[in-house]
TrEMBL record:
It comes from Haloarcula limicola. InterPro entries: DUF7122, Nol1_Nop2_Fmu_2. It comes from the Archaea. Residues 1-24 are annotated as: Disordered. Pfam families: DUF7122, Methyltranf_PUA. Residues 111-164 form the rRNA small subunit methyltransferase F RNA-binding PUA-like domain. Residues 2-74 form the DUF7122 domain. Residues 15-24 have a biased composition (Basic and acidic residues). This is rRNA small subunit methyltransferase F RNA-binding PUA-like domain-containing protein.
């Protein structure tokens, strides 16, 4: 089924099943999470992927009929119709603990700046691009959001409405 910007439509399983060349497939979404973050595709075995509009991918645990004429389904998961695919804050907070690569762990001060939306210099030897950002919470490393690492700088991708000043 082709994409309709007014309703949720399930992603095609493979490229052979899609009608729109720009549309992501389930196979590509799983490959992205596996190749970029090392998240095993089996993690999403009980989930379905849906698109509303151009490239806004949602994840849902279960299998409702397709297409679905509702305003929300599961949670936003990934943005795909841009040069580089971008995971959402919600996706990283829900599934980031399974990431085995492109994960950066922040100190208390770095984490405070990150959740406030500040960009900061960072000594990171890994890949450029989107990272799972973690910080110790309750004695364990927990994903707090998505960062973009370029030119020695970690750019906070925390949405403006979700930023917090923890120094106040």
């Amino acid at each position: 089924m082709s994409n309709d910007s007014t309703r949720f439509t399930r992603l095609p399983e493979t490229a052979a099943e899609r009608e729109d060349e720009e549309r992501a497939t389930r196979e590509e979404v799983l490959a992205f999470w596996n190749e970029r973050f090392g998240v095993d595709p089996e993690t999403f075995a009980d989930h379905t992927f849906w698109e509303l509009g151009a490239g806004k991918i949602w994840i849902y645990r279960g299998d409702p009929p397709s297409p679905v004429e509702i305003e929300g389904l599961g949670m936003t998961f990934l943005r795909t119709r841009q040069e580089h695919w971008k995971p959402t804050l919600e996706a990283v907070q829900r599934f980031g603990h399974r990431a085995r690569q492109n994960v950066v762990h922040l100190t208390d001060e770095q984490a405070r700046r990150f959740v406030a939306g500040e960009d900061q210099e960072l000594d990171w030897e890994g890949d450029w691009g989107y990272l799972v950002v973690t910080h110790d919470l309750a004695g364990a490393a927990e994903p707090v959001g998505v960062g973009l690492f370029v030119y020695g700088e970690l750019r906070s991708q925390v949405p403006k409405g979700r930023r917090r000043d923890l120094d106040a």
